């Protein structure tokens, strides 16, 4: 029998979100219904609302979520009723060409629920990142559920489902930061701040945080930054950027071992590119818009060596990484709870988008 719950949808491009009734069907054979306890407000949800990702309205928003498994399909073996889980949007299939090569983090055929959630009039909903967790309950594939220690605060645990894991993984997994290395992070939203924290936990000894907001630069020190650069009044582009000069000054004139662009616009991309030491690694985890183009002289690309890598979901494997970082947080070794800036109600999502755009939070988290 289907279940009707309250959820938050985006009905049309750019329009304010709506709180309405959502119909959850009985789970398919490998699906589960999760009772949502908390869900972070991520920039990706705003991008769905504004039509920057797809045009498959209406969207059921929300995806950085934690909750408890309530109902399971007949063939579910991965989780059981009562399990505390973090939802993920990379439920690897194990069968595609990437999985067969052992590159599970690049799975091309990740699993989603076999049935559609709908409005009460039968209109099918597109769940954000295949999850749709701004709702009292949601329907996902069993592989989208990762069991973690139930002692964790759901508001903190859910943030591993997207942005925090993306930034953390950009440093630890994609950038492969090692003990004693130097790292620069450009852009200090939730993703960039998680990259700072990831660089610290990986053992970097010089961590440079760059942003235009002094408040975020102060926050970055709490997450592990050893140096900060206020780029709001600095000029120049590319290799001639004053930001690049300051990064090199901090690193004895050489540049960093790893540079992470957590914004995804060309000024920060170029700053990260030129802030590297020769043969340094650059990671792009900020998502560019559909019209952006990378523009650097080919000789600079060739001559500086090293590697340039995009970070998809921080190259994470949820089954490996989510339990690990929950446990590290419970051991007071990773500051996951510090990313929770405020706790809000389901009806406060639209206001939370405004707060996020103003740069006043790392994460607003909906508590259900």
Short account of what is shown:
The protein is of the alpha/beta class and 368 residues long. Helix content is 27%, strand content 25%. The strands form three sheets. Strands 3, 5, 6, 9, 10, 17 and 18 form a seven-stranded mixed sheet that branches. It has a six-stranded parallel sheet with strand order 13-12-11-14-15-16, with helices on both faces.
Q: Could you please describe the fold and organization of this structure?
A:
With 368 residues, the chain is of the alpha/beta class. The protein has two domains: 192 residues, Alpha-Beta Complex (Quinone Oxidoreductase, Chain A, domain 1), CATH 3.90.180; 147 residues, Rossmann fold, CATH 3.40.50. The protein is built from eleven helices and 18 strands. Strands 3, 5, 6, 9, 10, 17 and 18 form a seven-stranded mixed sheet that branches. Strands 13-12-11-14-15-16 form a six-stranded parallel sheet, sandwiched between helices. Helix 11 links the parallel strand 17 and strand 18. The longest helix has 13 residues. The radius of gyration is 20 Å and the shape is globular. It starts with a strand and ends with a strand.
Number of folding domains?
Answer: 2
Rg over C-alpha atoms, rounded to the nearest angstrom:
20 Å
**How would you sum up the global shape?**
globular
SSE string, helices as H and strands as E = EEEHEEEHEEEEHHEHEHEHEHEHEHEHE
Q: Which ranges are low-confidence, i.e. pLDDT below 50, for 5 or more consecutive residues?
A: none
Overall average pLDDT? 95
Fraction of residues in H or I helices: 25-40%
Q: Identify the CATH architecture of the largest domain.
A: Alpha-Beta Complex
Query: What profile does the largest beta sheet have?
Result: 7 strands, mixed
> How large a portion of the residues is in β-strands, by DSSP E?
25-35%
Give the number of helices: 11
Q: Helix/strand-derived class? A: alpha/beta
* Spatial separation of the terminal alpha carbons: 23 Å
Q: At the third CATH level, what is the topology name of the largest domain? A: Quinone Oxidoreductase, Chain A, domain 1
Q: Find the CATH superfamily of the largest domain.
A: Medium-chain alcohol dehydrogenases, catalytic domain
What's the CATH C level of the largest domain?
Alpha Beta
Family: Belongs to the zinc-containing alcohol dehydrogenase family.
Cofactor: Zn(2+)
GO molecular function: S-(hydroxymethyl)glutathione dehydrogenase [NAD(P)+] activity; zinc ion binding
GO biological process, one term: formaldehyde catabolic process
């Amino acid at each position: 029998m289907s279940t009707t719950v309250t959820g938050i949808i985006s009905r049309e491009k750019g329009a304010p979100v709506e709180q309405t009734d959502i119909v959850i069907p009985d789970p398919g054979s490998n699906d589960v219904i999760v009772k949502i306890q908390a869900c972070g407000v991520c920039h990706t949800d705003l991008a769905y609302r504004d039509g920057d990702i797809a045009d498959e309205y209406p969207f059921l928003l929300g995806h950085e979520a934690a909750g408890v498994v309530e109902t399971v399909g007949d063939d579910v073996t991965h989780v059981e009723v009562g399990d505390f889980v973090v939802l993920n949007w990379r439920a690897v299939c194990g069968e595609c060409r990437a999985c067969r090569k052992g590159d599970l983090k690049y799975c091309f055929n990740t699993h989603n629920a076999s049935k559609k959630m709908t409005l009460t009039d039968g209109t099918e909903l597109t769940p954000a990142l295949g999850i749709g967790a701004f709702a009292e309950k949601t329907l996902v594939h069993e592989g989208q559920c990762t069991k973690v220690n139930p002692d964790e605060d759901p508001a903190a645990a859910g943030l591993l489902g997207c942005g925090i894991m993306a930034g953390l993984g950009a440093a630890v997994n994609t950038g492969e930061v090692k003990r004693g290395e130097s790292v620069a992070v450009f852009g200090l939203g939730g993703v960039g701040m998680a990259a700072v924290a990831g660089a610290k936990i990986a053992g970097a000894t010089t961590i440079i945080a760059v942003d235009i907001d002094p408040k975020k630069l102060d926050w970055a020190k709490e997450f592990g930054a050893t140096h900060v650069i206020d780029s709001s009044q600095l000029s120049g582009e590319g290799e001639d950027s004053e930001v690049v000069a300051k990064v090199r000054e901090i690193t004895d004139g050489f540049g960093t071992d790893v540079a992470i662009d957590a914004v995804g616009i060309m000024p920060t991309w170029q700053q990260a590119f030129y802030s590297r030491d020769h043969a340094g690694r650059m990671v792009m985890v900020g998502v560019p818009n559909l019209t952006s183009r990378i523009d650097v002289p080919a000789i600079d690309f060739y001559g500086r060596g090293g590697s340039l890598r995009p970070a998809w979901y921080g190259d994470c494997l949820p089954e490996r990484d989510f339990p690990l970082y929950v446990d590290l947080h419970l051991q007071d070794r990773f500051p996951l709870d510090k990313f929770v800036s405020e706790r809000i109600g389901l009806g406060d999502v639209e206001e939370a988008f405004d707060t996020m755009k103003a740069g006043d939070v790392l994460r607003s988290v909906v508590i259900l």
